[in-house]
Amino acid sequence: MVRDLLVPGFINITEQKGRVQIFWSEEQLLVFFKGYDKDGDGRLTKDEAKAAFDKLGSRFSTFRTWRARCHADTNSKDRSILNVNDLVKYALKRGYKL
């Protein structure tokens, strides 16, 4: 998994069955997804979102991108573009680990 965005002070650690799990924080995910925003407008295309979910370790990044679009704010007329904040909320629900 991705471990290079570990920011001190923003770590959520849990212990389950004797194993320590470190979950992404909201701030870490926001920085992570903004890193995939090529034009800096705060929105990701399907391809950018898919690449981000690949890097997060998702086995089914195309499916995750589609589900994120389903969970995202539907006020946007262009459903192929995803708001970074909506992606962060979705990824937090999925519980990605560092």
Automatic annotation (TrEMBL):
- Superkingdom of origin: Eukaryota
Molecular function, one GO term: calcium ion binding
Origin organism is Prunus persica
Entries under InterPro entries matching the protein: EF-hand-dom_pair, EF_hand_dom
Please state every residue range assigned to the domain named EF-hand: 24-59
In Swiss-Prot or TrEMBL terms, this protein is called EF-hand domain-containing protein
